[in-house]
Write a structure and sequence with these properties.
3-stranded parallel β-sheet, 14% strand
């Protein structure tokens, strides 16, 4: 799991956040390695909270978790909140959405969405 690696190998390096890209297999359920985390959360969320604690210790105020599910269906691996972005589907526009989220510029995110021609 990428977050386990980030929490061990890169624990002393500061990051603005972490981006997980999956085909919805990152929704971790029982019977898999790192199946369930603490207090009934997914393993991904438990590792994310460990990552965030370590990052705060390095001076990163509120690192962002970005989850991109390229084949979204069902529940996401992480609940939507101010420090978590769930992006369903993938196109070139995903890079701008991720960049806006990691920069914490909500106005830029709105501008990106408004700029998309339908």
């Amino acid at each position: 799991m990428p977050l386990v690696e980030a929490n061990t190998r890169y624990a002393k390096q500061a990051f603005a956040g972490i981006v997980l890209v999956s085909d919805n297999e990152s929704w971790i359920t029982s019977g898999r390695q790192h199946g369930y985390g603490q207090n009934g959360s997914t393993g991904a969320m438990t590792q994310c909270e460990n990552f965030k604690k370590a990052q705060r210790g390095l001076g990163v105020a509120d690192p962002t978790l970005v989850c991109i599910d390229i084949q979204p269906y069902g529940p996401s691996q992480a609940p939507e909140r101010s420090d978590i972005l769930n992006n369903s589907g993938f196109s070139d526009a995903a890079f701008n959405v991720v960049s806006s989220s990691l920069e914490g510029d909500a106005s830029r995110f709105v501008r990106e969405v408004d700029a998309v021609e339908l």
